[in-house]
Amino acid sequence: MDVIYGLIPGMLILGIVAVAVLFWAARSGQFDDLDGDGQRILMDEDDQRPSQEADQEQEQEQEK
After folding, report:
1. What average pLDDT does this structure show over 20-34?
2. Helices within 1-64 (DSSP H only)
3. Is 9 helix (H, G, I), strand (E, B) or coil?
4. How far apart are CA 14 and CA 9, in angstroms?
5. Is 18 helix (H, G, I), strand (E, B) or coil?
6. How far lies 56's CA from each of 6, 46, 48, 59, 64, in Å?
7. Alpha-carbon distance 59 to 45, whole Å?
8. What distance in Å separates the CA atoms of residue 56 and residue 17, rounded to the nearest whole number?
9. Which residues make Cβ contacts (< 8 Å) with residue 25, sequence separation at least 6?
10. What is the pLDDT of residues 30-58, one digit of tens each?
């Protein structure tokens, strides 16, 4: 029974810390974009459009 006198304050402190971490995460923007990471992993970053210089080089090669 004496153990409960130590566990109750310990659990209260742990609960307060958990709530404080939750509020910190919400204020720092951790939950702003929940779907972004899931979508980013599906999208290819390799699909970059060629630069204008590459387009001009191709046009010059085609003219020859």
Report:
1. 92
2. 2-27, 36-40, 52-63
3. helix
4. 9
5. helix
6. 76, 21, 17, 5, 13
7. 26
8. 60
9. 31
10. 888 888 878 888 877 765 665 677 777 77
CA–CA distance, 63 with 56 (Å, rounded to integer): 11
Handedness of CA 35, 41, 43, 45 (dihedral sign): positive
How far from 32 is each of 20, 22, 24, 39, 43, CA to CA, in Å? 18, 13, 13, 14, 20
Distance set, CA 34 to CA 24, 30, 44 (Å): 16, 8, 19
Distance CA 11, CA 17 (A): 10
Contacts of 27 (CB under 8 A, 6+ apart): none
